[in-house]
Amino acid sequence: MVHNHRRGGRTDWSTPGGVVDEGETILQGLSREVEEETGLVVREWTGPVYTVSAEAVDMKWTLRVEVHLADSYAGELSVDDPDGIVREARWVRNEAIAELLDGQQVWLREPLMGYLMGDLPPTNEYRYRILGTSDQDFRVERI
After folding, report:
1. I want to staple 72 with a disulfide (CB 3.0 to 4.6 A). Which of 31, 42, 44, 67 is the partner?
2. Which helix (H) or strand (E) holds 106?
3. pTM of the model
4. How far is residue 122's CA from residue 47's CA, in Å, rounded to a whole number?
């Protein structure tokens, strides 16, 4: 898990990941992001194990996430995030993840906990509609 420092001083925990750069495949972008955020070089991936899509209607943005499982890796935990968002990376036991995700956006928390509990939807896909213009007034619907 990685500890993120967001704009406005908000912090949260998530799995490593980020934006795929132009010219990268999804797995190339994921591998780069994981290495920057954790120092680990993933040698082999399985997936996607589940996907997430969210549409923020009022803020006019969409999010699409493919979550893959790292089957083999090399290296030691160290953070070198060029974006300066990730400040810490740590190994976390599955039973401790729910507490770290307390307060995290539902479109990250619910799918990850579903995966860890072996309770994925039949399609392995989570879809959300987000209404509102700030995280203080979000109304999130699972669709």
Report:
1. 44
2. helix 106-116
3. 0.90
4. 15
Give 15's DSSP letter.
Answer: -
Structural domain boundaries in the chain: 2-142
> Within 10 A of 119 (CB to CB), how many other CB atoms are there?
8
The first and second tokens of residue 103, run together, are 């307060």
User: What are 36-56's pLDDT values in tens digits?
Assistant: 999 999 999 999 999 999 999
Tell me how far apart the alpha carbons of residues 39 and 86 are, in angstroms, rounded to a whole number.
Answer: 12
> 124: left (phi > 0), else alpha (psi -120 to 50), else beta?
left
The architecture of the domain spanning 2-142 is Alpha-Beta Complex (3.90)
What SS3 state is found at 50? strand
Q: Are strands 125-131 and 61-74 parallel, antiparallel or unpaired?
A: unpaired
